[in-house]
Amino acid sequence: MVNRLLLLGMILIFLTCCSDRNYFHIEGLAQGTTYHVTYRGNRDFSHSIDSILKAVDKSLNAWDSSSIISRINNNDTSVVADSLFVRVFTKAKQINRESHGLFDITVAPLVKAWGFYRKQKTLPDSLEIKHLLSLVGMGKIELKNNKIIKQNPNITLDVNAIAPGLSVDVVAEFLQRQGVADYMVEIGGELKCCGLNPDRKRWHVGIEAPIEGTQMMGEELSTVVQISGRAMATSGNYRKFIVENGIKYGHHLNPITGYPSKNPLLSVTIIANDCVSADAYATACIVMGPDKAKEFLLTHNDLDAYFIYSDNRGNYQVFMTNRLKSLVQK
Question: How far, in Å, CA of 122 to CA of 99, rounded?
Answer without folding.
Answer: 30
